[in-house]
């Protein structure tokens, strides 16, 4: 069982090494780093947009990166059913690019939050959460200033009704004021997933727990 | 040709920064501030000399990049000298 994966690197990305390490550690195959100025993607099963502060968070988080050269290729890959995972700044970029609905606003408490939260699996029937159980609560770190998920009431109703909320902050650990404690959402087709927390930093005992592994193992199983 | 694009949060969208500023005004002794909402102002200089074309271009810029229309409204002002 193997998976071809790649991590997109923008100016200001800073989690690409963690992500490349996690992908290789979990999939056993070396992932590729993809430069934002490229206009074509290699043949991949999973494209990851990693965390960081692309373009210094200028204008709005993810706004400039979302209009970058590589983005049309990512939209095309998403259309073809390739799995796309956006973590933190990657989630913000996917929203700004219109590949996911809604927007990540400034944290309600106005502070940058760097700590561990609890995540509840709201839907375990997705390509990104199938190795967890529905209702399972796991530990995961967050590190962001703009993670406050917001969308219009109609879209929120659709997301909830269609099982497209994959992960929620659990046990009162919502760090940012997100609507309905939303931590991660899917697109309509279910092949694009964005989340604010960092599962790539919870994969070996050295990290304090290995709860994040199952997220990557889910994709590995889904593409097999 | 010069223009200004004003980007403001839509009604009902929470503005924690505006709230913090509102609180700071209160603690400075400014009474009677009912509410503060924070927005953005872009000053743009264009080579275009035709006002209609300039306005159309500014609209496109606002929609495609300057505003996120999920949460923000925008207003284009053009100096037609």
Strand order of the largest sheet of chain B: 2-1-3
Report the portion of residues of chain B in β strands.
25-35%
How many domain modules of chain B? 1
Mean pLDDT over the residues of chain B:
95
Helix content range of chain B: 25-40%
Name the CATH architecture of chain B.
Answer: 2-Layer Sandwich
Largest sheet of chain A: 9 strands, mixed
The major sheet of chain B is characterized as: 3 strands, antiparallel
Stretches of chain B where pLDDT is under 50 for at least 5 consecutive residues are none
- CATH top level class name of chain B: Alpha Beta
The fourth-level CATH homologous superfamily of chain B is Phosphoribosylformylglycinamidine synthase subunit PurS
Which oligomeric state applies?
heterodimer
Q: Which structural category fits the helices and strands of chain B?
A: alpha+beta
Number of helical stretches of at least 4 residues of chain A: 5
Radius of gyration of chain A: 16 Å
The CATH topology annotation of chain B reads as Mth169, Chain: A
3D structure, described in words:
- The complex is a heterodimer of chains A (224) and B (81).
- Chain A contains five helices and eleven strands.
- By secondary structure, chain A is of the alpha/beta class.
- Chain A has a single domain, classed as Rossmann fold (3-Layer(aba) Sandwich), CATH 3.40.50.
- In chain A, strands 2-1-3-4-11-10-9-6-7 form a nine-stranded mixed sheet, with helices on both faces. Chain A has a two-stranded antiparallel ribbon with strand order 5-8.
- In chain A, helix 1 packs across helix 5.
- Chain A is globular.
- Chain A starts with a strand and ends with a helix.
- The model of chain A has no long low-confidence stretch (mean pLDDT 97).
- By secondary structure, chain B is an alpha+beta fold.
- Chain B has a single domain, classed as Phosphoribosylformylglycinamidine synthase subunit PurS (Mth169, Chain: A), CATH 3.30.1280.
- In chain B, 35% of the residues lie in helices and 26% in strands.
- In chain B, strands 2-1-3 form a three-stranded antiparallel sheet, with helices on one face.
- The longest helix of chain B is centred in the C-terminal third of the chain and has 16 residues.
- Chain B starts with a strand and ends with a strand.
- The interface between A and B is medium-sized, with 19 and 11 residues.
């Amino acid at each position: 069982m193997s998976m071809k994966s790649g991590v997109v690197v923008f100016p200001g990305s800073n989690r690409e090494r963690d992500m490349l390490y996690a992908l290789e550690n979990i999939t056993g195959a070396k992932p590729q780093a993809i430069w934002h100025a490229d206009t074509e993607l290699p043949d991949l099963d999973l494209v990851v947009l990693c965390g960081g502060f692309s373009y210094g968070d200028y204008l709005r988080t993810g706004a400039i990166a979302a209009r970058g050269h590589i983005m049309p290729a990512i939209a095309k890959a998403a259309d073809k059913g390739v799995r796309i995972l956006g973590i933190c700044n990657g989630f913000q970029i996917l929203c700004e690019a219109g590949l996911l609905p809604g927007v990540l606003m400034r944290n309600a408490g106005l502070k940058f939050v760097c700590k561990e939260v609890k995540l509840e699996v709201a839907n375990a029937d997705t390509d990104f959460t199938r190795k967890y159980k529905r209702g399972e609560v796991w530990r995961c770190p967050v590190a962001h200033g703009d993670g406050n998920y917001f969308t219009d009431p109609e879209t929120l109703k659709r997301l909830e009704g269609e099982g497209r909320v994959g992960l929620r902050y659990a046990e009162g650990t919502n760090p940012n004021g997100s609507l309905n404690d939303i931590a991660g959402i899917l697109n309509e087709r279910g092949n694009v997933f964005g989340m604010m927390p960092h599962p790539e930093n919870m994969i070996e005992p050295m990290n304090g727990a290995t709860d994040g592994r199952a997220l990557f193992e889910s994709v590995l199983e889904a593409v097999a | 040709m010069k223009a200004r694009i004003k980007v403001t949060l839509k009604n009902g969208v929470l503005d924690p920064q505006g709230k913090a500023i509102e609180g700071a005004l209160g603690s400075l002794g400014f009474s009677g501030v009912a509410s503060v909402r924070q927005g953005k102002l872009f000053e743009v200089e264009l080579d275009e000399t035709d006002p209609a074309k300039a306005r159309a271009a500014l609209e496109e810029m606002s929609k495609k990049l300057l505003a996120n229309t999920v949460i923000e409204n925008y207003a284009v002002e053009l100096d037609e000298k």
